[in-house]
Structure to design on (242 residues):
């Protein structure tokens, strides 16, 4: 039964509101009471609507849960990307095919699937549909006509994701020279662009250079103190001998 659902059913359901009655539905779709009754009868057989009859009042029309599911399915279809079948339907409409039977024969798909795509194209403003004397006329909008001239939209490339570094240089505890060796080894594993000197290594080299200078000064000072002590001892020993 679901395969028999077509675009006329979906568009007829879209015209039904909370206060819609059978007696006035023909005026809502620009059709006679007889044509409107045929459309409503088809919806009733497919389980999409129900009637609430009250005498001597008018007969109210209610959409069943199955009908609501069908309309929700059509709305969700409009959220999907434009696809080749959408473009094929627009191309056939551009070529002059306006009836559902002509479209169905041209693209050779189930009426339900074609109904979903046509409803999607209508919600996206690629086409319009109008009831007249129980028949649904379909025509392209300006947007739909221009889309046929442009052709099938090219798929959008996925957005590039920022590349996360595979590893980071961890701080190394210990002496200055051990730190420098660890930093240098980590830097060799991660290539550095040409013309750019790592700032961290520059700072470490400065620390090592200063450390070496301080050590050299300390060694010189110790040597001078030792020499001075030897001179003093020598002088003291000589004066005692004299």
């Amino acid at each position: 039964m679901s395969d028999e659902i077509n675009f006329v059913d979906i568009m007829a359901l879209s015209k039904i509101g909370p206060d819609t009655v059978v007696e006035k539905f023909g005026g809502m779709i620009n059709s006679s009471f007889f044509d409107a009754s045929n459309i409503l009868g088809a919806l009733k057989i497919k389980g999409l609507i129900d009637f609430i009859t009250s005498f001597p009042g008018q007969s109210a029309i209610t959409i069943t849960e199955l009908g609501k599911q069908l309309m929700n399915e059509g709305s969700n279809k409009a959220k999907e990307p434009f696809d080749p079948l959408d473009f094929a339907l627009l191309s056939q409409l551009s070529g002059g095919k306006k009836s559902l039977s002509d479209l169905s024969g041209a693209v050779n798909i189930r009426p339900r699937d074609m109904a979903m795509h046509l409803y999607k194209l209508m919600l996206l403003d690629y086409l319009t549909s109008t009831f007249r004397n129980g028949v649904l006329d379909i025509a392209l909008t300006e947007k739909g006509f221009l889309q046929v001239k442009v052709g099938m939209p090219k798929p959008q490339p996925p957005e590039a994701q920022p590349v996360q570094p595979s590893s980071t240089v961890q701080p190394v505890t210990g002496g200055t020279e051990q730190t420098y060796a660890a930093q240098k080894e980590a830097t060799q594993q991660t290539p550095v662009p040409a013309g750019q000197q790592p700032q961290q290594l520059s700072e470490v080299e400065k620390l090592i250079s200063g450390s070496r200078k301080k050590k050299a000064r300390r060694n010189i000072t110790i040597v001078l103190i030792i020499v001075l002590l030897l001179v003093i001892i020598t002088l003291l020993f000589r004066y005692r001998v004299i």
In short: The beta strands are 49-52, 60-63, 127-132, 135-140. The longest strand covers residues 127-132.
